[in-house]
Amino acid sequence: MHNLYVPPIKIFIFLFLLGLTGFGAHAFHRADVPTPSLPTIPTYTYKAEEAEVSLAEKTWSNIVIQTNGADRKYGNIISMQVYLRSSDFAKEEWWAGRIEELLKTGKDANIYDRKTIVIFPEHIGTGLVFLGEKESVFEAKSWKSALDLFALKHEADLTPFLPSDVSKPGAKWEASFRLQAQKMADVYQKTFSALAKQYNVPILAGSILLPGPKVVRGTLVIDPKAPLYNVSVPFAADGRVMDPLVKKTVLTDEEESFVTAGEVSQDRTWIVPGWKVGVFVGHEVFHAALYDRLKGRPLDGLVSPGFSFSKMNRERWKDYIQDPEFMSLSDEDVWIKHGLPKHIKTTRAVESVQVFLQGDFFGETASGKTFNIRDFVNQDESGSSKEPRILNLYF
């Protein structure tokens, strides 16, 4: 057994240093020195068992039909101004029901014939990204917050769909749409295909955000790993998906963060019995160069599915809209004064139609005024932005 001997001097030094350390710590604790804190990261909280969302009640008892011109049996373009609330996208049957209500109203009024085409608004299918979500998502204070919450709730599933640069703005939004893309495409195609066949009318089904959309033997096909486009999809009266799919080329600020612009050179002429129309999606109507590509082509009309929030970014569009009065115009007047009606005579088209999606989306109100102009001068505008409405233009 070893003899463990420690000299007294070493014991004294150890106890002295131990006491000194304790005194320093006590003094530091008593000193009035602020303790540094790390920045807090905002998080969303939600219950494991969330409440189901409820269907929003209708605020209208009937749908008004406005008519521009008389039925001369040459055909007509019908604008379906849909009114939606965020929660309408929660269930397939709710969303489809809002759309069919308008088509049924038109049929009951006997305004369809073999030369009718029907136009729905831009982004009518985009909210299907929230299909099946619960109350927490639909209680978000903005669509951006709703997308953020969706991405947080489905974070584990987003990884395979994230872009290579995960730090870029909108990366998780892009992945969210790719994750939901097949479900969105299936519901969108099933709904509009069935309605086109049921009511026997060709339908330009507004637009929807989808990755790599294309038409294969009359069917809409997507690629979840491909770039995301805001695409307008036409359906024939027999329910087939038609070419051309028009991919929006002039994007808004919000779209630019995660959506890819379509090619300027793409085909945008939709041909159906009785009609050849040029299709412009939303803010494309401000881009003069797009009309130049239609010069000399046989066209009957120009149509545009549109969507706009209530405050237009004036700086974003002033280079397209070179007008000293631009800053003082209302958003509704900008679309009519500097969109289709301004540029239509660049083409051989005669009729112009733009239809806007209306509603309340996560507390943000849509704007834009649905309108049509017959023979360049006979103009009709929607009498309300607070309800669904049908505008019927006879050729």
Automatic annotation (TrEMBL):
Keyword Hydrolase: yes
Alphabetical UniProt keywords: Hydrolase
InterPro entries: C-N_Hydrolase_sf
Source domain of life: Bacteria
MF GO annotations: hydrolase activity
Protein's name according to its UniProt entry: Hydrolase, carbon-nitrogen family protein
Organism of origin: Leptospira idonii
